[in-house]
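Lab notes, practical 5.
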Amino acid sequence: MGAWELLLVGAVLALGLCGVLVPGVPGSWLVWAAVAVWALRDPDSLAWGVLVGATVTLLAAQVLRWQLPPRRLRQAGATRRLAVWAGVGALVGFCVVPVIGALPGFVGGIYVSERRRLGSHGDAVASTRTAMRAGGSSVLAELFACLLIVGAWAGAEIWG
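Output from the prediction step:
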């Protein structure tokens, strides 16, 4: 697979990660489609293994999301800025402490957004809890699954 094709797959993966944070955008399906195109264009056992792993991971994330409360973030007062901070926090956490760092990074991003908006620590903690109960855990499950897939794809490209 050429460099331009890899850049295009990477761009679609990044778009899918951003799409997870926007309601109504099929971010996880964009991530899966990018990995599927990559695996079809570069058909070796590692690529197919990543595709199978991505499929299983996304199916498990969907089952988990059905068990979690539905997305009610807008009614709870969540803004687009909160989603951006949560996504950036998850991405930074994922890079600082590979894989498991996305979890505290996501919650930390929500906290930072609410701390900037509300000013005090107590109010920010209460607002973070409300956002996580209102649907943040559902978004986190989907985002974490997509980050795992992107990490597997990047690892396969770098070391594979």
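Observations recorded by the TA: Residues 19 and 27 are 4 Å apart (CA to CA). The mean pLDDT is 88.
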